[in-house]
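DM between two lab members

TW: hey, do you still have the Alkylation response protein AidB-like acyl-CoA dehydrogenase entry open?
JB: yeah, one sec
JB: this one, 383 aa:
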Amino acid sequence: MIDHRLGEDHEALRDSVRTFARKEIAPVIGGYYEREEFPYPLVRTMGSMGLFGLPVGEEHGGMGGDYFTLCLALEELARIDSSVAITLEAGVSLGTMPIYRFGTAEQQREWLPRLCGAEVLGAFGLTEPGGGSDAGATRTTAVLDGDEWVINGSKAFITNSGTDITAFVTVTAVTGTKPDGGKEISTIIVPSGTPGFTVAPKYSKVGWNASDTHELAFDDCRVPAANLLGERGRGYAQFLSILSEGRIAIAALGTGLAQGCVDECLRYAGEREAFGHHIGEYQAIQFKIADMELRAHNARLAYYDAASRMLRGEPFRKQAALAKLTSSDAAMDNARDATQIFGGYGFMNETPVGRFYRDAKILEIGEGTSEVQRMLIARELGL
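TW: and the structure you got?
JB:
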């Protein structure tokens, strides 16, 4: 029979992250959010807890866990705050995993131990200005000149790309033309501080205000030929693989936000009085919260299913898209309902619900829009 109960190790990890999120993140994150400040102390603590190395083998300095363990951690973090959760998600899924999956032994020795301990962060430069979801429209180029790649182009909306501990960005670039006339796209590691690599000022964002996001520019930026990540011309396939895994992680994050809305509304419904009664006594509020719990539950089942298929080595692309779509819808709907339940207080950034409302929208856009998820699902159905 199917059993969704967690094992002892997973339960212990989830409880540890839940305690950390409630005791250390919750009391301070509002200030970071208002100041639009990256929470370095929290990231250092997560590094010391081993969260940035959860799915990486112990031989590389990781915890030797699995991707599902990372998802459990992300859900618990996002129940409190999504800025911290996306810092971990992007740091692992987009920063560490490309090196872990496709890096040479030398690249892994150089980067993985420090990435796993959050001594440094890595970023993934895929999206380009004007490109959006069309990753095949990559215009950034990398030309091999002797033993160096010369990179020219720009990237947009790149998470963890401008912090004081960002060590590199892995960029997708056109490195030639395929026999069929299509673009040959490869991925190349560009260390921070490389001449010609410029990080623009941070974006002013609607949400995720305590996370780090920048536009990047490359102007005759030269890096060693050995910085090629994986096989030349396989960059597009590599990024598809990374994004499929990342969608499960984002689904866990969205589930956490949806469940956080339930948590806050349950507390508020037992405290807030209107017309002589706690608002939790009114059926309108009860039904709204029941619907919110339903959405969070379904989102959790969806990412559990996708993660279990991935860990068993089964095809999971459709399930990852289903999970990402389900969770982002749940997050948006729950954030809207929670804001309504809280009334005026839900419109204030000082409340978790106000931040949940601002943070939810990007889940329908980042790491594949909801429209892209529907397109992937339809293709997997043979349409």
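TW: got it. The CA atoms of residues 265 and 341 lie 7 Å apart. The domain at 8-121 is CATH 1.10.540.10 (Butyryl-Coa Dehydrogenase, subunit A; domain 1).
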